[in-house]
Amino acid sequence: MQWQLFSSRLGGRYTATEALEKHQECLKKQREAVKYRLKKLAARQSEITKKSSVIRESIIRKYQEIQAILDEDLRITLSHLEMEERAAVSALDGLMERNCYLIQEIEQDLARLTVTLDQTDTEPDTMVIKVRQTKLVDVLNRTDPISVSLDEVKADQILSLTNNMLLLICSQTPIIKKLIKSYSSEVCLDPETAHPKLIISPKGDSATYTDTWQQLPDLPGRFDTTLNVISLQGYSFGRHYWEIDVTGKTYWELGVTYPTIPRKGTTEDCWLGRGDESWCVEFFDGEYTAWHGGVPHQLPFTRRFRQIGVLCNFPAGLVTFLEADNMTPLFSFCAGTFSDCLHLALCPGHDHNGTNSKPMAICNAPSPTRD
């Protein structure tokens, strides 16, 4: 009986040891899997850095080639103009020289005439005087300044061609502008999400603050504390770009959000960028701040921008804010992978005694449609 009990205890202890060893082996495999993933991530990081470097160098080379072509064309064009200038100046030098010789001859004639006048018994040589007058008329006719000129028609053509080139370059730059605008997507504001003190235009393309609390249905999706409104459409793949007009405003918030953003009460997460569900740029008191997860990023810009661009790049996991006129990047958030679809989100802010009464308007927003 005692032997059976001892064997049972030994077997139980062996079973527990075996289980611990299996668990240990499992943890080692998990550790190796994580190490392998870290290795792959590091390799991917290095690959992205190298690819970015190659792309950057290729773009720099293309710009350098463009600059070299423009510099060479400028050199040739200026050479032609300088050649014509030298020819015209040389021709004028020749004409001026002929006039100088004529002046010298006239001076000599004057000197001789003075001597003749002193000698009262000498008759003036009228034939010489007539010849000199004829020569004078001939020289003056042949040395008319209007007879020498630049090829102004050619100059006008060059100016016209260079102006056309300038217009073409302006139409293609910034190059990034054409690319980013190609990502423009339909979006309009959803009035059923708007705070009761926001007036949403019939087309859903603007949001304006009003002091009057509008009697609207208290829908689950309506913001009841923060002056927010989000777009009707949400996107979960691809690249999407919108431009928002903030002209004349002294305070605004603009960003993107998951549909799960809190909308009721005074919780901090209801504000754009204060929680993990949204990303935004805020303009307040002359300063720009980028927000996500409650973390502020002060931006080095002070002038008031007219339009702000918002770019959502799902393949890259990026939310980028830009000054839309020149496509100057303001700030980029790298989310890695978005966990839900993204909606455009606006907060036009209080009117601040009339200083912030202008609406926030979506540029080229389509008419709203609801499924």
Strand content: 15-25%
In DSSP terms, counting alpha (H) and pi (I) runs of 4 or more, how many helices?
4
Strand order of the largest sheet: 1-2-13-4-9-10-11
- Count the E strands: 13
Helix/strand-derived category reads alpha+beta
SSE pattern, N- to C-terminal: HHHHEEEEEEEEEEEEE
Low-confidence stretches: 365-371
Silhouette: elongated
Report how far apart the termini are: 78 Å
What's the overall average pLDDT, rounded? 88
* Largest sheet, strands/sense/barrel: 7 strands, antiparallel
The percent of residues in helical segments reads 40-55%
Write out key terms for the chains shown.
single chain; six-stranded antiparallel beta sheet; alpha+beta; seven-stranded antiparallel beta sheet; 371 residues; 13 strands
What does this structure look like?
- This protein has 371 residues and is an alpha+beta fold.
- The chain contains four helices and 13 strands.
- Strand 9 (307-313) and strand 10 (318-323) form a beta hairpin.
- It is elongated, with a radius of gyration of 41 Å.
- Residues 365-371 have low confidence and may be disordered.
Explain the layout of strands and helices:
Layout: H1 2-118, H2 126-142, H3 152-172, H4 175-181, E1 198-200, E2 206-209, E3 229-230, E4 239-245, E5 251-257, E6 278-284, E7 287-292, E8 295-299, E9 307-313, E10 318-323, E11 328-334, E12 343-347, E13 360-362
Antiparallel strand pairs: 1-2, 2-13, 3-12, 4-9, 4-13, 5-6, 5-12, 6-7, 7-8, 9-10, 10-11
Helix pairs in contact: 1-2
